[in-house]
Amino acid sequence: MKIAQVAPLIESVPPRLYGGTERIVSYLTDELVRLGHDVTLFASGDSISSAVLAPCSTRALRLDPAMPDAIPHSMLMIDKVRQRAEEFDVLHFHIDLFHFPLFRSLASRTLTTLHGRQDLGDLGTFYSRFREMPLVSISDDQRKPLPHAKFMTTIHHGIPADLHRPSFEKGKYLAFLGRISPDKRPDRAIRIARAAGMPLKIAAKVDKVDEDYFRSEILPLIDGPGVEFVGEINEREKTKFLGEAAALLFPVDWPEPFGLVMIEPWHAARRCSRSVAGPSLRSSKMALPAKWSTVRKKLSQRCRQSCLTTAAWCADDLKRDSPTQEWPETISALIVSC
Question: Mean pLDDT across the chain, nearest whole number?
Answer without folding.
Answer: 81
